[in-house]
Amino acid sequence: MEQITRLVIEAINRMETEKKSDGFAVPVGVSARHVHLTQEHVEALFGPGYQLTKRKELMGGQFASNETVTIVGLKLRAIENVRVLGPVRKASQVEVSATDAIRLGMKVPVRESGDIDGSAPVAIVGPKGAIYLNEGCIVAMRHIHMSPADALAAGVRDGDFVSVKADNERGTTFDHVKIRVDESFTLEMHIDTDEANAALISTGDMVTIVD
Ligand SMILES: [Zn+2]
Question: Does any domain span residue 84?
Fold first, then answer.
């Protein structure tokens, strides 16, 4: 009897170690297409003195605003009701999925947010005006936000690239996932709607870092 108990305890211990080495679990947040604007562009689109209004808090002090715009690509192909995120930034930026890029008739590069040099041109239309960006339209590079404590626990550093596995019925591994570490971040992997739909993943689903 004593021996059986010991065997069971050993088996359980083994399972627990295996589980730990099995990878660091991360919840997914699916990002829909959205726009970041400068204050100058907010005013060009919504009127002089206009301030974005908060609809929903996001991590890192960001928020989804109540304001939406229309984005216009080549041959006047457009997508309406694109959410503006706040607060205002130093440069305006439009983040779309690869499917959106096809719909807009544009070639859009995969970039990290903020890295817009030489990215695709795009027009933005608001209720009070329109702007044209020579560059600023990107397909966002998938990434994981985490706090320094999470990074320590996961054994990764800011700027690292990892692979992430979604262990659902479709089963997908994502490579080239960039780690972004900041005190203001809560643990979340950000993918766009194309990536989520292709892998049958919804916001709140768990994935694991495998590499
Ligand atoms: Zn993100």
Answer: yes
